[in-house]
Amino acid sequence: MAESKCPASRLMNTGGGGIKNRDWWPDALKLNILRQHTPVTNPLGQDFDYVAAFKSLDYEGVKKDLTALMTDSQDWWPADFGHYGGLFIRMAWHSAGTYRVHDGRGGGGEGQQRFAPLNSWPDNVSLDKARRLLWPIKQKYGNKISWADLMILAGNVALESMGFQTAGFSGGRPDTWEADESVYWGGENTWLGNNVRYAHGHEGKADQGVLDGSQETKSDIHTRELESPLGAAHMGLIYVNPEGPDGNPDPVAAARDIRVTFGRMAMNDEETVALIAGGHSFGKTHGAAPDSNVEAEPEGAPIEQQGLGWKNKHNSGKGPDTITSGLEVTWTATPTKWSNKYLEYLFKYDWELTKSPAGANQWVAKKAEPIIPDAYDSSKKHLPTMLTTDLSLRFDPEYEKISRRFLENPDQFADAFAKAWFKLTHRDMGPRSRYVGPEVPAEDFIWQDPVPAVTHPVVDERDIPQLKKDILATGLDVSQLVSTAWASASTFRGSDKRGGANGARIRLAPQKDWEVNNPRQLRHVLQKLEQVQQTFNSRAPAAGGKKVSLADVIVLAGVAGVEQAARNAGHHDVTVPFTPGRADASQEQTDVESVDHLQPFADGFRNYGKSTKRVKTESFLVDRAQLLTLSAPELTVLLGGLRVLGANYDGSGRGVFTKRPGALTNDFFVNLLDMGTEWKATGDADVYEGKDRRSGEKKWTASRVDLVFGSQAELRAISEVYAQADGGQKFVRDFVSAWDKVMNLDRFDLKKGSNLPTVRHYDIVAAQWHVLHEAFAKQNINLVLNSTTRYVDDLAGSGFLIYEGPEKGWVNHQEEYNEWLKASRKGGYDALNLYFFSSYSPGATGYCQWPTPLAETDELTFYKDSCQLSAMTMPGFTVEQGAFESWNLGHLAIHETGHWFGLNHTFAGGCSEPGDFVADTPAQLTQIYGCPVGSDSCPNQPGLDPIHNYMGYTDDSCTDEFTPGQQERMFQTFFGVRRK
């Protein structure tokens, strides 16, 4: 039988191949960055809650496995000095170290080191091996820990396994599943080039390899300016060239590059010295031979290498033959142990320039003994060596002062490195409300943009309508209300989770003085809104202690403005969602320099900013939309709505294509797409005039940002939807939805994946109330819901026990909690106060105060009279989200309320009298779990164990009853003790 053969004569191509639109029109506006990281690309599905999964992780088990891995050297990639610590520190550092302050992009928060281009950068040589070493641990714990978290945690454990005490760790970094195309890594098209980011850079290397020590010495290295928003000196590096600027081994010149690049990663001089000196206290660099031995990076490697790259032809290609940076430096005599030796050697020796085996510039100690161990041969010793950038810490005047202080004060050095390392690895995670895990440090850091806890009841649906009326009564118009709320909320960046309306930092420096915020108008608006806030808060005692923050008032003002604009357009049934709970930050809680990086260079939503030689304003608009996590339709509807609401930063009419400004209409799109208008450029490159085609009469003025919605094909297609005859209602509905999204972008306390999760969701509270009310209604006890209040702070969230790190563990804050109870408890002794805590004591489900006759002076017993429960017992939470497996239907609230009414456990007293003091509940020897039908632990007493009674410990699915005797006891206790 003849062998079957494929028809070889036909040439086949596949979908996605061929010349692309961007090849034909490279300068065309690209919207692809608005379509990233969607549920379509996520194999876990959009309903997967990573934070809930992480909370169920055997965290100590992961750390134990990571610690074991550190010294479990593998033949296929041996460990230097028998310890992988240095490799994993570098992996974590290079994961987090891509962060830059100008746009908040980069960093370790998405696990992007797994994807191109980062997985193939010259600076990341060998980190492909580090991730493969981690794979068995990732495989073991699955989706309970992301790659993003695991890479950072591995760096922490590496440090701890070598004797260093870290400042803590937070999980909560969900993985992404594709390369982040929104990040501008530079315009160079060769590895290690910098001819675009600097005015006088060099072109780099067309082929793949390690750092080239033979680069031309440049004369402008002291004065050059690094292109914004970049943070690295070369394409493909994390920070700077360790050989010196462009390979020039000048430690003083290198210090300038270090200061710029680390500064753009949000580090000051002290943090920079601590990180370099601390990180270089461990491990070594690798330059066993010239880079001509190194083959293609992972993205360019053959398929059989299975995602690994940089195959090394030098001898074994691993262990002592490893080539990464091309430098061959081991900094200390104790490369697997924390010490102060890095700084000791830095100042102890004089240094002379030498070459590594790969030909890279490095330094060797003069008149020194060979004290440095070999990584693979214990019989060998080497002379101390340093990088050019190491010597910068000695020869730069400012760095030298800090380095000497650390040398003389090792404890200060250790503390500074611990805090700088925590900042490095957590800088892009945003506020503490996103932190999760048992090792989250208790300390607040100013770089986290802290916002005070909400320690008072917040406004609710009974207060909000009147507040809206009060806001509108100030005389502020729609434009002022909307533009102020937008200015406050739109500072948010999805990249590093900074900014947003929470904190009301728009009233503080530097935001209050930003040109884009129209400072003069802003002062006027804020003065009016502060009056509304003060008036409401002055009534707090009469309102049950409820107060409203200015942050909430600012957002509510925008809500009121949008609703008024909808009414102005004839849409009288429009309600814009509003969720209170924000707080006001102080100037002392605000790092002015850091917050100033949130200031937009251009903001097309408010028609602010000009094009540059490289970037047109419409590209700035798309960039800003991506930072706001907007889709192309959301971008379109928001801009069209903001225009007709008159939200331009300067109050101008540019792009306001309507005869009825202040009304929420689709006029922007209708008039933009009107073929009766002809557009022409003016003398200003960013300004255009629209004239009537017949009469030549001027109708409108517009910016490039306005006109792009009629010129760019995808944006025009969306605009047409809103300009259609049936598009008006959809426009209003979509605008309200997108507006609400932006107003709440920083409300991590309201989102799935938050560490302050859904305990505050109204549906969860409503479901719990329904379960509780129905159970007691069957006993002729009519519970009446008086109020619900949300609190956001560590104390209120945990019920007096707060986790303060691995050393202190869960710390009792009972005295502070008692004071909090005094301020929060409502009603008399006959008022049931139920507290549900988002982070209750480990393993605990609930507790309730027993009814005790009060003495006149017994104030504390009164204030502590309440039931306290874990929110994870409420109906609506799943086990995957952290709910208790046996108690998640809300019956624990019934059980604890039974205690409040004077009922004891059914197993109280065991098989002996008087048991639980109720005659008709059968005796039970001890607590019973599950739902063991037919159980009889007191066979000499009548009846079976009362497994279906609410006052036992059986599963929620098993309990559904009180006895008549229990009903009678509840009435007696309430009227005899509580109501009395």
Automatic annotation (TrEMBL):
GO terms for cellular component: cytosol
Protein name (Swiss-Prot/TrEMBL): Catalase-peroxidase
Residues at the catalytic site: 94
Function per UniProt: Secreted metalloproteinase that allows assimilation of proteinaceous substrates.
Alphabetically ordered keywords of this record: Heme, Hydrogen peroxide, Iron, Metal-binding, Oxidoreductase, Peroxidase
The protein's enzyme class: oxidoreductase
Family under the similarity heading: Belongs to the peptidase M43B family. Belongs to the peroxidase family. Peroxidase/catalase subfamily.
Example GO BP: cellular response to hydrogen peroxide
Annotated residues for binding of heme: 280
Named cofactor requirement(s): heme b
Keyword Oxidoreductase: yes
Lineage: Eukaryota, Fungi, Dikarya, Ascomycota, Pezizomycotina
GO molecular-function term, one example from the UniProt record: heme binding
Annotated site residues (Transition state stabilizer) in this chain: 90
Post-translation changes: Formation of the three residue Trp-Tyr-Met cross-link is important for the catalase, but not the peroxidase activity of the enzyme.
Cofactor notes: Binds 1 heme b (iron(II)-protoporphyrin IX) group per monomer.
Placement of covalent cross-link Tryptophyl-tyrosyl-methioninium (Tyr-Met) (with Trp-93): 239-265
Pfam annotation, one family: peroxidase
Origin superkingdom: Eukaryota
EC number per UniProt: 1.11.1.21
Domain Plant heme peroxidase family profile residues, every copy: 127-437, 470-760
Catalytic function, reaction form: 2 H2O2 = O2 + 2 H2O; H2O2 + AH2 = A + 2 H2O
